[in-house]
Structures are given as C-alpha cells and as structure tokens.
Amino acid sequence: MLVFAYLRKKLFTKNKSMKKNLSEWLDNKQHLAFVIIIPTVILLIAFAYYPAVQSLRFSFLKYNIKQLSRVRFYGLKNYRNVLSDPVFLSSVLRVSYFMAIATTTVLLISLGISMVLNEKFPGRSILRAVIIIPWAIPPVVNGQLWKWIFNGDYGALNGLLFQLGIIHEYQFWLRQPFIALNFAVFLFVWRYTPFITILFLGVLQSIPEQLYEAAKVDGAGAFMRFYHITIASLRRIGGIAVILTLIASFSVFDGIYALTGFDEATKTPMIYNYEVTFDMGRFGKGSAMAYLVGLFLILLTFIYIRMSFKKEAE
Amino acid sequence: MRKPVSLKIFLAVMVLLIFFWSVAPPLWIAISSISTRTELYSKPPHWIPHHPTLDAYKNVLIKGEGFRGGGGISAARLFRKGILNSIIISVITTALVMSFAPLLGYAFSRLQFKGHEFFFYLIIGIIALPGWPVLIGLFSEFSTLGMLDTKTGLILLSFTFRLPFETWFMKGYFEAIPAEVEDAARIDGCTYIQALFRVSLQMVMPGLIAVSIISFLSTWNMFAAPLVLTYTLKSKPLTVTMTEFIGQYFVNWDLMSAATIIAIIPPVVIVIFFQKYIIRGLSAGAIK
Predict the structure, then answer these.
(1) What's the CATH number where B266 sits?
(2) Could you tell me the residue range of the domain that residue B121 belongs to?
(3) Which residues of B fall within a CB distance of 8 Å from A294?
(4) Which of A125, A221, A246, B125 reaches 20 to 30 Å from B6, CA-CA?
(5) Lowest-pLDDT choice from A54-58, B129-133, B227-231
(6) How far apart, in whole angstroms, are the C-alpha atoms of residue A140 and residue A255?
(7) What pLDDT, on the 0 to 100 scale, is given for residue B42?
(8) Cα separation of A291 and B133, whole Å?
C-alpha cells in the first residue's frame, strides 16, 4: 500500500511538472503560433491544395472514370479540346451576357434600396432584416421556388400576367431560350442584391448628414448632392462590389441547376463543367475546363483581395 | 431636415416595393404549401386558399405519400434524413469554426512569429481557389480514402473552406481592440492563452458570433459539393434531397412547397434574430 501511495505521489508530481513545462513552453509567441497554425495548414493542404494539384494532373491525362483501364498521358489535348468545343465557347458567350446584365442590375437596385434604407422611417430595422431573406435561403431552394413561380401550367407569374390582361394564354417561359436565360439572371439578381445593398448601406450610414446640409447651403441641387456626395463616397466600395458581383455571377451553379438543369439555354461554363466531369465522367477534359475557367476566377479574386487590403491600409 | 410630403409618399411607395420584392416569392410558396392540390393546380391561381390544409406538411414529414423517388424512397424519408444530415453537418462545422477561428485570428493579429506572412497568404489563398478544380480532385481523393458519401467528409470540406474567411475576419476584429488590455493581463501573470480566453475573447465576441452565423448559413446552404461527394441518404443534406422531389416528368409542387418552407425556416429565423450580426459579418468580409 505504501509503495502504491508513493508511486501515485511520484507520478502525480511528475505529471504536474510536465503540465507546467508544457504551459511554459507554450507561453512563447513562436511556439503558440505554430501549435495554432500547423493543424490548420495540414487541413488546408490535405483538402484544398492537394486536390487542386491532383486535378491539374488529371487535366493532362485521357481520363474517363467510366473507362478506367484506358487512362493515359494526353499532353495539352484536353485543353485544345475544350477551347475548340462549340458548347464550351457558346457557354462562355452566355456567361458574359449573364455577368454584364447581372452586375449592372445588381448594382443599380442595390443603390436604390440602400438609399431608401438610409432614410429614417418607421419599421426601418424590420425592413433591413427582411431584405436579407433572399440572400439567406439556400440558392438551390431559391431556384426551385422560382421554377414554381415561372411554371408554364399553373405558375404565379402566368396567373398574374393573365389576370392583368398582359398575356392572353399561359406561356412556358422556361422553354423559350432567351427568356429562360434572362430569368436565370433575374434569380441571381434577386439573391445577390441584399449582399451588395448591405455593403452600400454601411458606407451611406457613415456619411455625416451635415455634409448634405452644407452642400445645400452652398446651393447644390438634389442631383449635384447625389452625384458629388452619395456616388463619390460609394466609389471605392462600388469597385469592390463590381468585382464581387462578377465573381458571383460567373460562379452561379445551384440556382441554374435547380431552375433549368443542363438545358442548353442557360448552360454556363460552371454547369457545363459539372456535366462534362460528373455526368459524362470525363475527368481529364473536365479538369482542363476547370483550370481554364478557374484561371479567370483566380484573376478576379486577386483583384478583389488586393482592393480590400488597399482599403485596409488607407 | 424636414421632408416635403411628395418625398414622403415616394419613400413609402419604395418601402412597400422593397418589402414586396423580398417577401413575395417565399410568401407565395407558403401559400402554395397550405393549398389543397385542386387549388394549387388551378387557373388562374387562388391567391388566397379557400380551404387551407396542412396535408402537404404531413406528407413530407410523416406519411410520405404521393411520391416515390429512385429506389422507392418515400418523400418523408428523403426529407427527414436530409434535415437530420443538414443539422449535423452545419452544427459540427459551426462548432469547429467557432473554436478555430478565434485562435487563428489571435495568432495572426497578436503573435509575431517566423513565417507570419507566408502562413497568412497560404490560408487566405484558399479564397482564390476556384471550386471545380478542387472538387474534381477531392472526389478522387475521397474515393481513395473511403470518405465519399460520409458526413465527416462534408464537414471537413466545409470547415476547410470557411476557415480562411473566418481567420481573415477574426484577425480584423482582434486588431480593432487595443493590445494594452492583453499586456495588462500579462503583467498580472497570465500566459498568452489565458490572456486570450479571459480578456480578449469577450471583446471580440460580437465578431465571433457574426462569423459563426455566416458559417452556419453557408454550410446549411451548401449544394454543389454534396451533390458531387454524396450519393445515399446516409449523408445527403437537405439541399440535395430536395432536388430529388423533381422527377423527370412530374414535380409534386405541394410536397415541394412544404419542403421549401421547412428548409428556409432556419435561415429566415436566423436573419430575423441576428440581423445586426449578419450585416456586420457581411460588411467585414468585403471591407476590413
């Protein structure tokens, strides 16, 4: 018994001193930082950088997961195939249209909504919560929600236009390519506007009201005040908003997938990339496409990160 | 500044328009979800249902009639498993983000160490990584590791891709509070870790809440990654199981509407209660 008690005491004190040593070792900026950062870095390499390198490798292989025995080196052929694929090229044109319309519309509507929200009126804080709803619901659910509204047989849009006398019979909107594409743009605009609105509102609320009053005293009209104060203060955030909206509208996948699936009319590179890779199983071509498309996104994202940091430094 | 009446009327009209723009679509789904099938499929639509019913909800949550998906899975099973998976994945991801993001933010804002810049850009660089190259590689990596179709895989993935944003935000929040409070704690004999947990953490708490809410929402809303990485009810989240209500030729819009309402309840409740935090979190992301 005595031996046991002795051992326990010994072990206990040893343990305690170990614990103390550990906490002393940790109380050093370098050690502590490494203990915090190393697990994260391992995770990021394992689940982000490594897979990205893997698919870069795939992009140089003839690799179809439905024909695994025929995997072989393919050089730059995948890239050449993607760049000469008429479906891919037309999807690039389509997404250019998508981005142009979406970005312009999102920015204009956000500007309007944020200016209204910047005024004082009863229920302002409720409205501020309500406008975030479109952004907060899952994009894929958003797609299904609108698919029901645009429905050709019983949709609310048809019902509304019919009752207002604008159309005389129900239309299958999503079967008309150009309309379907524009509805897909609309879906994105509805979802993304709240985010940009919040960014704008943050800036508008930091403009002191005295500035407007002073300009008024100096004889500046409503338009001059809007242009020289409101627009001028939104310039920097506006640049960030443009880049963010371009990135987001280029990357739309969920909403289109739910609204029209692989339909030719709304096939953007993101949708086509999924179809080629996971529907057809062509991992080699899919990876090459992912990298071509990805380079463009990386470029935009770097501009965004640089712009944000610049703002921070100022 | 007093406003003229015409401006007030204009403002009121705009406010109503904005309100309508934001809530009308979900509201229409809510109305559809309590309509009977006959009313749902009527021309022109019944804007206000004459015989409201909860049948669609009963069907989607309990009975599962009127729908057989691939493999004869009933709507209710599809839906209930989806909700459960979504809750598990989002809660665990958020918990992980909540425990790691403050530590990382603290390390990059307060601790001077070798490789500070290098590691920061290594982590932030993830933001610039586009989705498909990673997902294609990840699909093959997961299939080698046996992690395809597991909730663990999805949790690790969403955690990995939230972390760079949240580290960036938390670094900003830490930089906004004065370092002197920690110095004072150090003089009182606290270690760095103690100073962080006893003093600074409380001060960045609003930021941490904002970051956690955004993480929860984005994990709950995630779709493309689980679409690629899961294929059975074992791990499919709600967003993926819901797309399966759409058959090739026919959509059960009554089930769909009820399912949609249930799927958007968590985000909508969060938005209403945590509006301020969300606004803060979103603006912090774009402009530091």
Answers:
(1) 1.10.3720.10
(2) 29-286
(3) 129-130, 132-133
(4) A125
(5) B129-133
(6) 5
(7) 78
(8) 6
Domain ranges of chain A: 77-313
C-alpha to C-alpha distance for B150 and B143, rounded to whole angstroms: 11
Residues of chain A with pLDDT > 90, as a percent, come to 54
At a CB cut-off of 8 Å and minimum separation 6, what does B46 contact? B35, B39
Interface subset of A 242-301, CB within 8 angstroms of B: 244, 251, 253-254, 257-258, 270, 273-274, 277-278, 283, 286-287, 289-291, 293-294, 297-298, 301
Q: How many domains does chain B have?
A: 1
Residue with tokens 């962080």: B196
Q: What's the rounded mean pLDDT across residues A81-99?
A: 95
Q: Indicate yes or no: CB of A273 within 8 angstroms of CB of B132.
A: yes
Give the model's confidence band at B230: pLDDT under 50 very low, under 70 low, under 90 confident, else very high. very high
Q: Does the distance separating the beta carbons of B246 and A51 come in below 8 Å?
A: no
Within-domain flag for B6:
no
Residue A167 phi/psi, 5-degree rounding, is -120, 155
Question: For the packed helices A232-250 and A177-204, what is the interaxial angle rounded to 10 degrees?
Answer: 140
DSSP structure string for A149-176: HT-TTT-HHHHHHHHTTS-SS---GGGS
Q: Is residue B23 part of a domain?
A: no
Task: Look at B287 and A23 and tell me if their CB atoms are within 8 Å.
Answer: no
| A212: chain B residues, CB-CB within 8 Å | 1
Length of chain B: 288
Of B114, B131, B268, the CB nearest to A133: B268
CATH of domain A77-313: 1.10.3720.10
Which residue of chain A comes nearest to B102, CA vs CA? A36
| Interface contact B107-A37, CB threshold 8 A | yes
B33–chain A nearest CA distance, Å: 11
Q: For residue B206, how many C-alpha atoms fall within 13 Å in the half-sphere facing its CB?
A: 12
**Long-range residue pairs from B245-251, CB within 8 A, at least 24 positions apart, any chain:** B245/B67, B245/B69, B245/B75, B245/B78, B246/A144, B246/A258, B247/B69
- Rounded to whole angstroms, the Cα distance separating B285 from B197 reads 24
Cβ atoms of residues A138 and B263 within 8 Å: yes
Under 8 Å between Cβ of B137 and A51: yes
Determine, yes or no, domain membership for B214. Answer: yes
Nearest-angstrom CA–CA distance, A17 and B72: 62
